[in-house]
Design goal:
The structure holds 2 protein chains of 2 kinds. By secondary structure, chain A is mainly α. Chain A has 14 helices and 2 strands, in the order ααααββαααααααααα. Chain A is globular, with a radius of gyration of 20 Å. The two termini of chain B are 23 Å apart. The chains are: A mainly alpha, B alpha+beta. The structure holds iron/sulfur cluster (2 copies).
Chain lengths: 328, 189
């Protein structure tokens, strides 16, 4: 009986998070297409539903019913595994993300996180690092030159950018004195971290763009030079898993930007529930990511590397040094 | 990062990404400007200019006869060889076309037939909705040409319209409503 009381809320929370994450790409693809369209003075999808709102649904049906093609010389096991390997880590990351203060329902208190673990930030960085394996496996198993090139690029990119990303949050951890995300948010009660950590935010944001493989750092799937990059050979439902993973990674990064540097759910206007306030901030960052996508061209491969190693890495180390001096 | 840009704006601009910021501001302004897409055929329709070269039409004189004197100059000059004219003598003793067929599927709407015509007879009009199920249906005859719409007098407007479905689906302009000049409303900065 005791264990049911513990497990049941956990299952409910898990169900909600997974359901929301699985459905999230629908509005996000719509949003992305709308933003792309309006930047180019087009209205975007308009015909299916009000202002094309049902368009993603039609696209989903199309994707799910398409032929699931596997190239003849592909490594079938790895080929089938890769989308799942790419999809799982961004979902697992949500285990450690809190969405607000604990809430009281019928006298018992529930946290708004699956697990408010004390090494939350480390867990998130570690797990999201696994996501690159999906890309590598996909590229390798497809037995296609574009896919291999895409996955090679993504290996180099992920490794180069995970380092400055990890360093850039050290300043935040130093300020909060904890790796627990709730504590980090509480530490921003007075002033948001963006004020104390502008360099940290900059490095985290840019490295995040690279981690999410979004323009201007979308070299692994550069449509222009690689066909579609690592998922060139994927179609149907497996392709949609990759797409899902990409969108969830984007949501994770937007959430982390809001939690680590913009006060999380703190500072909500009185009429808004704090969790919604956090989601609004997240939505803002998602919008910024999409805005960037349709503004900038793609960096060249050598530029990508030199930005990572020669600009972001020294900046993140400098940020740690400055934070240390100020705290001392 | 754009070095040439950087030298122009100095290193301060380079540090604060002034070129990237300029690009972002541009796309932001575009994001909140009006779209220019034609919502054709069920909400809007574009009215062609007078110079528009669409579906041919045949002019008639005061007595109701066609202007064409069946000289076959249009059929000679046509680069696509898509006009067939067979002359005959009508009751008034005038030379007129007995057969005047244009294959609109082969026509390239160059307007040479219009230029060649000595009798001010064949013209290219405003009509541009010509879809058919078969290419054979695109061969138009003399009576079709006489009935076809003439040249537009004003144009360039995007006016409210509605879709008329059925055998001959087309977009019908809703009368009495003002259009917008979509060409001028395109943002260019
Ligand atoms: S418009 Fe040009 S191609 Fe068409 S019928 Fe006239 S001359 Fe021929
Ligand atoms: S349409 Fe004009 S050019 Fe053609 S046959 Fe008639 S008169 Fe001659």
């Amino acid at each position: 009986m005791e264990s049911i009381i513990v497990i049941l809320p956990l299952l409910v929370k898990m169900g909600i998070v997974v359901a929301v994450l699985l459905l999230l790409p629908l509005p996000l693809t719509w949003l992305e297409r709308k933003i792309a369209a309006h930047i180019q003075q087009r209205p975007g999808p308009m015909r299916v539903g009000w202002h094309g709102l049902l368009q993603p649904l039609a696209d989903a049906i199309k994707l799910l019913t398409k032929e699931d093609h596997i190239p003849m010389d592909a490594d079938r096991l790895l080929f089938k595994m890769a989308p799942v390997v790419a999809l799982v880590p961004p979902f697992v990351v949500f285990v450690a993300i809190p969405f607000g203060e604990p809430v009281q329902i019928f006298g018992s208190s529930y946290t708004l996180a699956l697990s408010d673990m004390n090494v939350g930030l480390l867990f998130i960085l570690a797990v999201s690092g696994i996501g690159v394996f999906g890309v590598i496996l996909a590229g390798w198993a497809s037995n296609s030159k574009y896919a291999v090139l895409g996955s090679l690029r993504s290996i180099a990119q992920m490794i180069s950018y995970e380092i400055p990303m990890g360093f850039s949050v050290i300043g935040v951890v130093m300020l909060a004195g904890s790796m627990n995300l709730s504590d980090i948010v509480h530490a921003q009660d007075g002033l948001w971290n963006i004020v104390y950590q502008p360099i940290g935010f900059f490095v985290f944001f840019v490295a995040g763009l690279a981690e999410a493989q979004r323009i201007p750092f979308d070299l692994p799937e550069a449509e222009g030079d690689l066909g579609a990059g690592y998922h060139t050979e994927y179609s149907g439902i497996r392709f949609s898993l990759f797409m899902l993973a990409e969108y969830v990674v984007m949501v994770v990064l937007a959430l982390l930007n809001a939690l680590l540097f913009f006060g999380g759910w703190l500072g909500a206007p009185p009429f808004l529930p704090p969790a919604l306030w956090l989601l609004l901030k997240t939505g803002f960052f998602i919008w910024v990511f999409m805005w960037f996508r349709f503004t900038f061209p793609r960096y060249r491969y050598d530029q990508l590397m030199s930005i990572g190693w020669k600009v972001l890495l020294p900046l993140s180390l400098l940020n740690i040094l400055i934070s240390g001096i100020f705290m001392f | 990062m754009a070095r040439s840009q950087a030298t122009k704006q100095g290193w301060i601009g380079w540090i604060f990404f002034s070129d990237l910021a300029a690009g972002l501001m541009l796309t932001l302004r575009y994001m909140f400007s009006k779209t220019v897409t034609h919502h054709y055929p069920d909400a809007e329709k574009w009215l062609p200019y007078e110079r528009h070269r669409g579906h041919h039409f045949m002019k008639t004189n005061d007595e109701g006869d066609v202007n064409c004197v069946a000289c076959e100059l249009c059929s000679k000059i046509c680069p696509c060889d898509c006009i067939i004219v067979i002359p005959f003598e009508d009751d008034k003793g005038n030379r007129r076309p007995q057969v005047f067929d244009i294959d609109l599927a082969r026509c390239l709407y160059c307007g040479l037939c219009e230029d060649a015509c000595p009798a001010d007879a064949i013209k290219l009009g405003r009509e541009y909705e010509m879809s058919e199920i078969s290419t054979g249906a695109l061969v138009v005859h003399l009576d079709d040409l006489v009935a076809a719409p003439d040249k537009a007098r004003d144009g360039g407007q995007l006016v409210p319209a509605r879709l008329i479905p059925g055998d001959n689906p087309h977009s019908e302009v809703i009368a009495g409503k003002d259009g917008r000049d979509w060409w001028r409303s395109i943002r260019r900065d």
